[in-house]
Design brief:
- The protein is built from 15 helices and 18 strands.
- The chain is of the alpha+beta class.
- Strands 15-12-14-13-17-18-16 form a 7-stranded antiparallel sheet, with helices on both faces.
- α8 runs antiparallel to α10 and α13 packs antiparallel against α14.
- The longest helix is centred in the C-terminal third of the chain and has 21 residues.
- The radius of gyration is 22 Å and the shape is globular.
- The two termini are 28 Å apart.
- Bound molecules: (2R)-2-hydroxypentanedioic acid and zinc ion.
- Zinc ion binds next to β17.
Length: 455
């Protein structure tokens, strides 16, 4: 295989060094075996085409690799695959001010795109904690969401065009940056969220928008999760929200301890909501807060008085993943309709408490769009394998609750390896058959990220 790869890549852009295989062969998950055969670093679309054709001719599999910040194992190479890293395709290729569209290679780091937009008085509004390492190609492959979805939508909403290399090695130019294009199936959207199972995203036309207005951040304490909908509805009626997040007291305790931060409120509560809204709406927000207090929905609250305070309040939410990482959490990334959230939370708490009273659950997430992150924390005494086995065994019980509320087993992290066996709880057998047919059409020899997404 190395000899074959050497026909496309110079020696310095192919590696089989054990440390490199370990590094580029995995994402942020830590529970899957890592065993790629090689890692290659293309610099051009032609090289991506060439390696894809080699894979088809020689019968080896490819795993696309971006910033490797995924949480579902979508970029893990466990079976001797060749990892195709986009680290060297990280250039911004062009920008047109009247289109407000920026042409990126797949390996552009999300934060670099944020900076590029800000330097032009504009904004790329998809934001999440890992933007310092994640790459735009990976964001597209998982249709990344994040903390501003209620106002700005998901990655999908910002992709005006894609250049892809299919699993058969064909280059397709999809939508070409157009705003309007009613010429049949929009194949661009098939590649968004496909987790690299149909081909490689090699370049993207990304839309930018106006820089956001100044904002304020509020953190509210709530004793009953069922009251959160009342709070959301009240604030939505009064202010323009750009975020409505939540975290449990357990999550807050972990962050304040890990980052040595002060508590946001004088007294603790069972749950906290974090809201971001336009600074112009400050008076209206205070009125909504007073109403929520009078209704007994919230027990206390704090509002940022400066950008530094706003950042400090955001740190309480954004630091959660990192604070619980030492407890090797088993991750769930669930979505239900916002209206279903309180009932769903109660059901899940009850199910976990019934089956595993010794397991601690760290709840947090983007409650304003119905996306809940449920991290089950590993008790120190339990081995990693035994813990994962128990969590995996609990999953069908949990996903039945998701299914009963017509929700999703993966809201924004993707299916990858972690949720593959549970896809049927969110997609019907008929849908999965259509997905397979699409996969066969674009990747007839199954070289693209095999074993991911489809059971
Ligand atoms: C977030 O919302 C990320 O912070 C990570 O999606 C969630 O660690 C998680 O479960
Ligand atoms: Zn999230």
């Amino acid at each position: 295989m190395i000899e074959v790869l050497g026909r496309v890549f110079p020696p310095e852009r192919v590696t089989t060094a054990p440390g490199d295989l370990e590094n580029w062969g995995r994402d942020w998950t830590r529970s899957f075996a890592v065993a790629p055969s090689a890692v290659v670093f293309p610099e051009t679309v032609e090289e991506v085409v060439a390696v894809t054709r080699l894979a088809n001719e020689n019968g080896f599999a490819l795993v696309p690799s971006g910033g490797r910040t995924g949480l579902s194992g979508g970029a893990v190479a466990s079976h001797g695959e060749v990892v195709v890293s986009f680290d060297r395709m990280n250039r911004i290729l062009g920008f047109d001010e009247s289109d407000r569209v920026v042409r990126c290679q797949a390996g552009v780091v999300t934060a670099a795109l944020h900076e590029f937009a800000a330097e032009r008085g504009l904004c790329y509004p998809v934001e999440f904690s890992s933007t310092g390492s994640s790459q735009i190609g990976g964001n597209i492959a998982t249709n990344a969401g994040g903390i501003k979805v209620i106002r700005y939508g998901m990655t999908r909403d910002w992709i005006a065009g894609l250049t892809v290399v299919t699993g058969a090695g064909e280059v397709l130019e999809l939508n070409r940056g157009l705003v309007k294009n009613a010429t049949g199936y929009d194949l661009r959207h098939l590649f968004i969220g496909a987790e690299g199972t149909l081909g490689f995203v090699v370049e993207a036309d990304v839309r930018l928008t106006e820089a956001p207005p100044p904002t304020r951040v509020m953190v509210l304490g709530l004793d009953r999760i069922k009251d959160i909908l009342g709070v959301l509805t009240r604030f939505q009626a009064e202010v323009t929200l750009s975020a409505f997040e939540f975290f449990s007291d357990l999550a807050l305790r972990r962050v304040t301890r890990h980052r040595s931060l002060p508590d946001p409120l004088d007294s603790s509560a069972a749950f906290y909501a974090l809201l971001e809204f336009d600074a112009d709406d400050e008076t209206a927000a205070l009125a909504a807060f007073e109403d929520s207090l009078a209704a007994g929905w919230v027990s206390d609250g704090v509002m940022s008085q400066s950008d530094a305070q706003a950042r400090a309040l955001w740190a309480l939410r954004e630091g959660i993943t990192e604070s619980i990482a030492p407890e090797m959490p088993y991750k769930n990334d669930l979505a239900v309709r916002v209206s279903e959230v309180p009932g769903f939370l109660t059901d899940v708490d009850r199910a976990v408490g019934r089956h595993y009273p010794d397991l601690e659950i760290c709840w947090f997430g983007h409650i304003g769009d119905g996306n809940l992150h449920l991290n089950i924390l590993k008790p120190p005494a339990l081995s990693m394998d035994a813990f994962y086995e128990r969590c995996h065994a609990l999953s069908p019980e949990l996903f039945k609750l998701v299914q009963a509320r017509r929700g999703s087993v993966s809201a924004e992290h993707g299916v990858g390896l972690l949720k593959r066996d549970f896809l049927g709880f969110s997609r019907s057998a008929a849908e999965i058959e259509v997905m397979r047919a699409v996969k066969n059409a674009l990747d007839p020899n199954g070289v693209m990220n095999p074993g991911k997404l489809l059971p």
